[in-house]
């Protein structure tokens, strides 16, 4: 089959790889209908050292179950399913606590002998625990929104949930990428009435407004923080959703969070330390968030997608054939595309 | 009257200062029955540059209302009251949210023209909001435990509450000072079943066991972390209460917190940055805590003290006359005394 590999920074190739087959009784093989490129795929795309041997890449996909191992009880050939971006048993203590990203038996797509998500098919370990049936057909118009359940929408949701967003909290979202916009949508869904989106790409912030942002702040740095404080009577917001992962974004988050408030981060941190000393202590600021246990949220978010109450798939602004994956990476890295679907 | 002043590191003096009088209609004057020395007083005692003019010091006291301003409605001469370590109006939005340390009209003892707590009397601003009536007499045997409501017990409680301690969480407490021991007591009171106390001063950890610690780990650094992990099946604890304020203690906290867990800090941070990068993100670790809004907790904790269900005053192991304040500081700095009461 064909699958995407990364050979180093800027070097994405679609090549022939072995067809996936059931190895373990708990495996399933899924034929991919749609996969997509994640903002976090852009970190290795920007900086991975060149290597002779490529690594499989991609961790967001939905597809059709083609084959199941003898121990798989909850899935059948033909089921249309979505995979969260970490596979997990969904039964261990961490999974039962909703922290599937720390599953005692789970792991990441593309690691070891596990397939990446950007290919024609994927061997799914622990298929009963990992996959969620969507109850739609292969040609559903909802596939893009359902694909966001793999990562980007639950990631925005995790950010909002861990920050404690509810109908009484004001919210700042930092970052107008697909995760930031999903965080806006999640905050709105959780009842927040004031959602300030910090971002300066107008097409994206316009979508942010449609998703529920009440204010957009295009300024950055000290000027941007001042603007958020102005919008909140000088106090900042109860919750700040940091959806970038770079240190200036986190600095901004601390600059706009209200005393007693919470900063949640879901952008993979590209920094080793956090400036969080005595001034933050004096204000009782909390830093939370982390890699989102998407699996924990899919059942909760799915009905809203199926019934059309939310349209998280609007973050996709380009669909390319799998063979053009390299072009998709380039377009996202150059911010020409917000988020790209790859269709085998 | 007589009051304690700090002139610089190691230089504590008890001197004559003006008698406090009611300035504002919302003031009260309280004659101090007991005050005490805080671990946080030891930071300036260790490092404050020498100055010609001394600064008033002390922020934990209880006493008798001697005089009230014309706008004070909830207090009368003769009431025995405790003061939280930050004065506050108890009516602004932050106070209503339980964050009295960020009160829009409050402030710190010993700052500006406000008295410090280690003296014979104190002018209390916003007395109706700040002071809590204790309903005991001047000679109550409970005064030491009631005095802890000023700071150390609510600080331990804040640490446990913000960490999310309950009957289902395992707990590590880092630090066997008065705050750490109070955190043990608070965690036990909130229902925690496993409470691991990290500390190496046996007299203190023995009191920690009486307060509810189920395990004591005397080792430090990597060895201590390994010991906590052994005690928790390799995982660490759901909550870690960091009651020291130094960077190695925070490093230890991150080393023993379970994936998905929370570190809460109530030791005033003596560091500008926190090592909290990608590994912590991957484990969904939360850092919370801060300066404790003692005022928010006094009404909740008071009945347990009055009815003898908890004895937080056991953290005091020495009582000195106010005139010997300097000796109290020395004894605490040299870890000869755990926590010292000053009695005018």
Report on this structure.
Two copies of one chain form a homodimer. Chain A has two domains: 2-151 and 293-343, Alpha-Beta Complex (Quinone Oxidoreductase, Chain A, domain 1), CATH 3.90.180; 153-289, Rossmann fold, CATH 3.40.50.720. Chain A contains twelve helices and 19 strands. Chain A has helices at 42-47, 93-96, 127-130, 143-147, 152-163, 178-189, 202-211, 221-231, 247-256, 278-282, 294-306, 325-333, and strands at residues 2-8, 11-16, 28-36, 55-56, 61-68, 80-83, 86-87, 107-108, 121-124, 132-133, 171-174, 195-198, 215-217, 237-242, 257-265, 273-275, 286-289, 318-321, 340-343. In chain A, strands 3, 5, 6, 9, 10, 18 and 19 form a seven-stranded mixed sheet that branches. In chain A, strands 13-12-11-14-15-17 form a six-stranded parallel sheet, sandwiched between helices. Chain A has a three-stranded antiparallel sheet with strand order 2-1-4. In chain A, helix 6 links the parallel strand 11 (171-174) and strand 12. The longest helix of chain A is centred in the C-terminal third of the chain and has 13 residues, at 294-306.
